[in-house]
UniProtKB/TrEMBL annotation, chains A, B, C, D:
Residues 179-397 form the Arginosuccinate synthase C-terminal domain. Keywords: Amino-acid biosynthesis, Arginine biosynthesis, ATP-binding, Cytoplasm, Ligase, Nucleotide-binding. This is Argininosuccinate synthase. Pathway: Amino-acid biosynthesis; L-arginine biosynthesis; L-arginine from L-ornithine and carbamoyl phosphate: step 2/3. Residues 9-170 form the Arginosuccinate synthase-like N-terminal domain. L-aspartate binds at T123, N127, D128. Its main location: cytoplasm. GO terms for cellular component: cytoplasm. HAMAP family: Arg_succ_synth_type1 (MF_00005). L-citrulline binds at Y91, S96, N127, R131, S180, S189, E265, Y277. GO terms for biological process: argininosuccinate metabolic process; L-arginine biosynthetic process; urea cycle. It catalyses: L-citrulline + L-aspartate + ATP = 2-(N(omega)-L-arginino)succinate + AMP + diphosphate + H(+). It comes from Desulfuromusa kysingii.
Amino acid sequence: MAKQEDVKKVVLAYSGGLDTSIILKWLVEEYQCEVVAFSADLGQGEELDHIPEKAKKTGASSCHILDLKEEFTRDFVFPMFRANAIYEGRYFLGTSIARPLISKAQMEIAAKEGADAVSHGATGKGNDQVRFEVSYYHFNPAVKVIAPWREWDLNSRTALEAYAKKHAIPIPTNKKVPWSSDRNLLHISFEGYALEDPWAEAPEEMYTLTVAPEDAPDQPEYIEVEFEKGDAVAINGERLSPANLLAKLNQLGGKHGIGRVDLMENRYVGMKSRGVYETPGGTILEEAHRAVESITMDREVMHLRDSLVPRYAEMIYNGYWFAPERIALQALIDETQKTVNGKARIKLYKGHCRVVGRDSATDSLFNVDFATFEADEVYNQADAEGFIKINALRLRIAAMQRAAKK
Amino acid sequence: MAKQEDVKKVVLAYSGGLDTSIILKWLVEEYQCEVVAFSADLGQGEELDHIPEKAKKTGASSCHILDLKEEFTRDFVFPMFRANAIYEGRYFLGTSIARPLISKAQMEIAAKEGADAVSHGATGKGNDQVRFEVSYYHFNPAVKVIAPWREWDLNSRTALEAYAKKHAIPIPTNKKVPWSSDRNLLHISFEGYALEDPWAEAPEEMYTLTVAPEDAPDQPEYIEVEFEKGDAVAINGERLSPANLLAKLNQLGGKHGIGRVDLMENRYVGMKSRGVYETPGGTILEEAHRAVESITMDREVMHLRDSLVPRYAEMIYNGYWFAPERIALQALIDETQKTVNGKARIKLYKGHCRVVGRDSATDSLFNVDFATFEADEVYNQADAEGFIKINALRLRIAAMQRAAKK
Amino acid sequence: MAKQEDVKKVVLAYSGGLDTSIILKWLVEEYQCEVVAFSADLGQGEELDHIPEKAKKTGASSCHILDLKEEFTRDFVFPMFRANAIYEGRYFLGTSIARPLISKAQMEIAAKEGADAVSHGATGKGNDQVRFEVSYYHFNPAVKVIAPWREWDLNSRTALEAYAKKHAIPIPTNKKVPWSSDRNLLHISFEGYALEDPWAEAPEEMYTLTVAPEDAPDQPEYIEVEFEKGDAVAINGERLSPANLLAKLNQLGGKHGIGRVDLMENRYVGMKSRGVYETPGGTILEEAHRAVESITMDREVMHLRDSLVPRYAEMIYNGYWFAPERIALQALIDETQKTVNGKARIKLYKGHCRVVGRDSATDSLFNVDFATFEADEVYNQADAEGFIKINALRLRIAAMQRAAKK
Amino acid sequence: MAKQEDVKKVVLAYSGGLDTSIILKWLVEEYQCEVVAFSADLGQGEELDHIPEKAKKTGASSCHILDLKEEFTRDFVFPMFRANAIYEGRYFLGTSIARPLISKAQMEIAAKEGADAVSHGATGKGNDQVRFEVSYYHFNPAVKVIAPWREWDLNSRTALEAYAKKHAIPIPTNKKVPWSSDRNLLHISFEGYALEDPWAEAPEEMYTLTVAPEDAPDQPEYIEVEFEKGDAVAINGERLSPANLLAKLNQLGGKHGIGRVDLMENRYVGMKSRGVYETPGGTILEEAHRAVESITMDREVMHLRDSLVPRYAEMIYNGYWFAPERIALQALIDETQKTVNGKARIKLYKGHCRVVGRDSATDSLFNVDFATFEADEVYNQADAEGFIKINALRLRIAAMQRAAKK
């Protein structure tokens, strides 16, 4: 086979599941190359302990396991939440924001291992292949990328299971659910199969991180979230690391059934696709962050920033986290967060959360003590007349012009 | 007095309440001019029947009453909802969108009556004065605007009541609530007094259009909302006029405690201000509209439109509904709505609503029958490789350039 | 060959030159299919008369010739100039705007002829392939597209000439110039070979539509251009059809050496590329159009429109003329042009043009007779104080807040 | 008079000319307060030497003179040119960018002097009053601002001269020109009187910094401008300080008649106004800067930045240089300039300048040596097919949907 000549060593993003196990084996067979497995803990809540054994048994020469939960939250999730980034009005970008970090860690291992190729388990119809590969190329423009789903002929469940059987890869015995999902510390997503009828409600048993609102406590719960420079640092007065804080918000949001979204979204590769998401902690985080911004952020700064968020969210959704335009926009966003210091009080109840109070000891643009100035020095109602007249001038001139035209 | 020479006849936006009654009398006294009262029904839910008598008793030469509920919903609320316009991420612009219509009707009466001045009861610290006056000047650039709150010396409740007593204006005996409010078919707003501590939760007794989520039914309710060219036309299969449809959504949303928002917002006149809003029907309308858009609207059209919505919302908030830039932007927005035909299924429960299904018989970009084309003619997974490689090219070149630099 | 089964009849965008002659023959040979040649006159200034004979001699079953100069100017160039669209600050999009029209006409012929495929002579490294094919798919999503440059192995000049010789295709004997070019009524572009060193000045002999500024008349020339709804309709008082008007401007601009641009631009496919352009008439047109806008267009309308032009220009550059986002944006642009009626006086001299006067008999927002209003009713200098104070309020509050913090 | 109680000491922006001399005297008379004169050298090319004597003779208690040319160029002009900021497509913002620096220096003197008020000579109809005062309030929200033109009754030339005579203020004897002007190191502007007919060409004798293109040398001149991080640092290989570099460019541009603009512009206070500008050095600077960007800046970064420039230019034009939204946007702009290192070769000839070459030894995204990679690893023409097909997918689906609808 020609393939074996191209690649000497490939680093595979490996989850231990059936699909990436088959890919691991397929890479060994097809490329006759060394395969290094790599698994990252981004808070997917699965056991990573036995992964090295599984990987080696399936043919990996070695296996790297990294706990990236703090880096993920601190350097990826939090910068994104400084912008209140939401894709198409609803999606908190939980999967989109994880891919760049996995790619980065994978490329660091590839560099250390001297690998000439990398591989992933994303299909050819989705966004994830773009997010992975655009990031790979950023770190090494000459890297060889192997995307088995675009290459092989194992295009059905049956073909995959036959391949697994043939190569003695264990097939999980637990009941196959009729959807696919992706989970990390920010969210879990669902798509496919049971969700393909856009009119049908998503099945209740699918939800993982949240109870049904109907099953949430009958009493609301109030929490306080504190922010420094736009990043959450404490809940109810307790300072927590980024990952621990997000985990705590997930637990609170999940308990109250908060953060479910059912969305028909537009993929970067051009088709519409239904996604259902649970983002319990992120949903609370956005509500609280906006509340602290509302009392500390200048109006024009907020409006400028907000006008750029659809584009920023699109960059992340499409996979351009490491691209210079995202970094340029982040510079603006981070500049806007210097004064975002304060806290928000949020009411959690039966599937939603709502700010009921906000404050800033250091940066409130509302609390400023106007008493130190005479009222009419700071705001003189008579000024409003001039303000209105000057602002209306162009409209008055246009009205005169229209009248003259008649 | 010099004032009496300036003005012969003034049309006053009159509500029948204490403040505009005092203004009416004050205008008569101060300007020695004829005062025409004008009241519009935009769905504020108050009795307008006795207004003409009250107005005349207080000194008005005549009184015009207009039912504008259908025009309000059809020509103001609905065009705005085609854009999913929300100010500062939370406010559905319920008061902002009403002011231009009141101004328009008032100026039509002024033209008919041959009045040379108009007046309103908005204070000198708020947004409404701008919204009224900018609109007035659009219709008549030479109109004389009288804003009593910016002119007179009745700057305390006591002074006002003394003036009322002196002029035999009846002072309402019902308990004065510690907030001010503005209501129409789209929403009710609250501000001032009890809400001035931004950390304190708004009092439950204030809410008018919605039950507390805790008191909402324990069972969720599902409804279907149908859209044509971006406008809602039917609920649960029943076609309704715009105003009746919005009233119906209000009743449904109110029953389930939907649409409460507590916001620290930025006024156009430069200060921050806390507003609490109930927009029960509008909240459902936005959720449903976005859902129908999600299945019928092109991705790039949506992203372009969404990037302009903060600016569009700002125009409306600031009072520029009749300005040419709003009209230019509306042309874009309306163009995007031609395909927004379909229906959404919404779940209402305990204070929030969430789309659970969406469909379009005529314009779905998801339902298209791909079967008429060979799968790989429409989407060939191998194409994704080229797509990614070309999109990554600039990033690869930059990476090579960085490497060469070292 | 498998290929012959796929395609029965292909419509080729045919210029009569060597490359598309070889493509014609190659299509016949390779696909064993009927080839219909199509040539459009967009003002490229070449003889189209003998094209049908040449096409048939080279193997075409038939040949369609269309004069599209008026449609090109009226429905493509003019709508684009309503926006003052310029790519990357310098390029007037002369080639970009021609491709969609060629594609449209080609697809109409394909429909009429019952062809199942279309083909073009654009290479795999440029923008034109995208512009052609994106437009093809818009008109027929199932059309088969054949891009020979991406398919064949004739990848050198030698291979091409060998192929031509073998198939008795006449090779032009005129000296081969060291650049490639594309010309139509709006411009001529140059790229490649002699231009590949970005530091070296483009050779003077390359320029086609313009004299060297040094060779232009020593006396300036003044012209007047008149506009209706944003479109030029007359020069020096003489009404002209769109194509004739643009031709006249080209003649004037060319005579004075106007409209040369030397640009390092970013292609849609990801690499930088140097392009040199001559757009004599278009350069004058933009200067004149902006001048008429400057006296007739509202400030906020202009600023809103201008902020969208980079995106609009990008859409056209990338090939999305027929895409719904371009059409939505055009709706906004066209709405802004309703008042753009008037004329501009332009000075042409030695390589550049500059507005020296502008006027509008019907829509000037400058000429309005302020005399009909008392000066201080329309503009009262005292109003400016209120205007400034209110606008500065947020900055004053922020300054107080900073001071309090210290 | 009440006035004398309000103000103890005022710092006046003083030019030594008739108007600010009258203001100086008027302040002393009207407010019975101490007046400190302040003059800044921003390159207006006038003698500042005798200003202290004149100021004191007219009544000033003291006079501060500052040479701000380097600070002006380095911290105001250059940051603005990093964005290629141009207002309404034509105006290089030469006056707008000077006002914030004058205000800053004036407020520093006010702080040092313990002054409670500041004053300036800008009228109530223009932009400058806003630029001054918004900046004043940024530095001291409690400062008293005195704008004599909005306050006094000296509203005619005759009244002014009478006042001058009465107070023994010398009236300049040189012929009064029929326009007003403002000059600094970046530009000179003209407005009023002779320019009020928008159709009439501006008089040749008005121009100050540039020769008429007709009088410029018959031979073109080529220059090289070098940039580091987006700022010009050298001309023809000679490193120069910012102010010296700009002065040198002015001299070169002026000699060749470069940088004249005749514009009908929209003032912030709502009316249209004609301005004529000479920006010889700035015009060359922008051409050169764009050229270096074109070879060093990523496409998406450029397009993002360009889409924000109209808003950025508007901020500066309106006077919001010190506002947080300008600073946030500057953070983005500066981030984009890190790679803008290189040089441009510019041809100067008879009224215009044009880039003819550009290069970057360190950051070219064009010069990258593709030879280190196999050609088809970096760019494979076959990839373009996938790129196009995926990009066209949404348009194909829409076309199928339209077809199905029929």
